[in-house]
Amino acid sequence: MAFWDRLKSGLAKTRDALRQSLDPVLEKIERLDPTRPAPDAALLDSLEEALIAADVGVATVEALVERVRRARPRDRTELEGVLVEAVAQAVGRPGQGPWAPPAGVQPWVVLVIGVNGTGKTTTIGKLAARETARGRGVLLVAADTFRAAAGEQLAEWARRAGAEMVRQKPGADPAAVAHDGLEAAQARGTDVVFIDTAGRLHTRLNLMEELVKVKRVIARQVPGAPHEVLLVLDATLGQNGFAQAREFHAALGVTGVALTKLDGTARGGVVLAVAGELGLPVRLIGVGEGMDDLDDFDPRAFAEALVRG
């Protein structure tokens, strides 16, 4: 299935929930007297409630509603067009292209972080497969040394993706594992390094400090690294995911977000909150369990799929 079709299918639950709230608003617009100013305050209030219900986030909702107020749409088509433009602008970044290693950076080091159960290891496996398919040498570093079978899971993804892997015994210092992995990558001339970390609650300060240590060790081993701090968020968490993103960003300087499980939730509006309110670029979205179900985030395609389907 092509990206466009997977995205539309993945956003179906979010779109249906949004439309359930938006349809009465759209019907009101279609009944407006063309001689009167449009839309009125009550209609805008209804639109605001509909967007908040989709976990868009209050600040972003206010900006979207203001765009609608200024545009003064007079029918369903006009309103949908305004929303598509506003959503695409809210979640996009000027010049944002595919997520890939920049020219001249070797190894390209990506530190992958997030809470338990968001799909970090699976995301790494899919990214590794994508990069090896593009002809790049990939090394996976198993810095999650605490979760049972974490190393085995990552090893299976490495095997499937055709990537190399560095790991140590369970309970090893994650920063030491990261150091050894980068040392190996430099010796082998590896192109891309993905560092898996143990899931942790953003409220556990001691565990967050452990991540800060890992990042510091990476920077000492490879100047300028990590080149990306990729936060993996579970779309089903809605505004709880937004809170996670805020705290991880404050501690580690997140450079991009991978949003997983977008096909299993009606709360995909969190994309707008993360991108619009925190200013974090959404770089990747997961819309299924297959190896090919992780895609580069396309702001325009997302907006079209969310609003129009």
Describe the structure.
α7 links the parallel β2 and β3. An eight-stranded mixed sheet has the order 3-2-4-1-5-6-7-8, sandwiched between helices. It has twelve helices and eight strands. Helices cover 51% and strands 13% of the residues. The two termini are 16 Å apart. With 309 residues, the protein is α/β, with parallel strands linked by helices.
Please describe the topology of this protein:
Elements (H helix, E strand, L loop, with lengths): L2 H8 L1 H19 L10 H13 L4 H14 L4 H16 L16 E6 L6 H14 L4 E6 L6 H12 L2 E3 L7 H15 L3 E6 L7 H17 L6 E7 L4 H14 L3 E5 L9 H8 L4 E5 L7 E3 L2 H9 L2
Parallel strand pairs: 1-4, 1-5, 2-3, 2-4, 5-6, 6-7
Antiparallel strand pairs: 7-8
Helix pairs in contact: 2-3, 3-4, 4-5, 5-12, 6-7, 8-9
Termini distance?
16 Å
| Low-pLDDT segments, ≥5 res | none
Question: Could you tell me the number of beta strands?
Answer: 8
Count of helical regions = 12
**Structural class of the helix and strand makeup?**
alpha/beta
User: What's the shape?
Assistant: elongated
Strand-and-helix sequence, N→C? HHHHHEHEHEHEHEHEHEEH
Helical content class: 40-55%
Return the average pLDDT rounded to an integer: 85
